[in-house]
Each structure stands twice: as structure tokens, then as C-alpha cells.
Amino acid sequence: MDTTRCTAAHDEDPTPCIGPKDAVTIVDKLGTAVPACENHGATLLASLYDGRAEPGTVPGAATRVFAAADTTHPFPWLADALRTEPGQLSNAANRAADQDVDADAPRDPKELEERLEAEAAEYEIEPDLFPPHLWTNDR
Q1: Max Cα separation, the chain?
Q2: Could you give phi then psi for residue 122, rounded to 5 degrees?
Q3: What is the pTM of this model?
Q4: What are the tens digits of pLDDT across the range 55-100?
Q5: How far apart are the C-alpha atoms of 38 and 48, rounded to whole Å?
Q6: What gap in Å lies between CA 38 and CA 26, rounded to an integer?
Q7: pLDDT of amino acid 91
Q8: 16 to each of 38, 52, 54, 56, 82, how far by Cα in Å?
């Protein structure tokens, strides 16, 4: 029995993979792609700003993941987290409240990359644009 989890599974997320580990591909705003099971694909997509789900090995999985991510708030395993800001809520909850998740976020990938590099330099860390422990909707 395979006990490893898909690439998209966050270390702190206790949930198991559901289906093949490459059922769907999650792509971030800058184009970095990660294969995922349906469960962790939805969690990752919900935790990204401007991410997308692309077809993987399971027909229809990208559509199901996209729909599930819409109603999943970022970092759902943080059950006790206070969720009051738009970046802490699901896209569906933000639409219901008529809130923009990140109105001042850079829309241009180059501008986003520059912003991330500046923040990395400020905190003296190596910029890694897609590490699972830094997923966030909240900037």
C-alpha cells in the first residue's frame, strides 16, 4: 500500500489523498504546475490567488477541484483560525459578501515576481515561488 501523499499535500494537512496523485494539475499565477489528487488539489487551489486547475489523468477532476476550491477557505486544516479578512475566506464567501480578495495585488506576473523578491530580500530568505508552507491568499 502506497502511503506517500501527492505533491500538493501540505505538511500540516492531515487529510489523505483522494484518487490518483496526478488526477489534476494546479497552476499558480506565475505558471508553476503541481500534480495533485482531487482533495489536495482543491485545498491548494483555494489557498492560491489566481491559481487554476488543469486536467490531469482523471477525466472531469479539474472541474470538480475548481468547484470544491470555490467553497473551501484557505488552509482548511487550521480549524481554530479566526477568518475575518477576505483573504481568509472562500471565494464563494467573498462573493456573497461582495468583497475583492486582494484588490491591490499585482496582476502582472513580472510585477508579482518583483514584489516577492523584494519581500524575500527584506526578510533575508531565498525566494521560492511555490513552496507548500508559504501558500497564501492573504498578502
Answers
A1: 46
A2: -60, -40
A3: 0.68
A4: 999 999 999 999 999 999 888 888 887 777 877 788 888 778 876 6
A5: 15
A6: 10
A7: 80
A8: 10, 22, 21, 19, 24
Listing DSSP states for 26-94 in one string gives EE-TT--EEEE-HHHHHHHHHHSSS-EEEE-SSTTHHHHHHHHHHTPPSSTT-TT----SGGGS-HHHH
What kind and span of H or E run contains 117?
A: helix 109-122
Question: φ and ψ at 25, to 5 degrees?
Answer: -120, 125
Domain residue spans in the chain? 24-134
CA dihedral 73, 50, 20, 55 (to 10 degrees): 140
Place of cell 505538511: 11
pLDDT digit string (tens) for 41-56? 999 999 988 899 999 9
- 28, 16 Cβ separation under 8 angstroms: no
Other Cβ atoms less than 10 A from the Cβ of 73: the count is 21
Q: Are 41 and 55 in contact (CB under 8 A)?
A: no
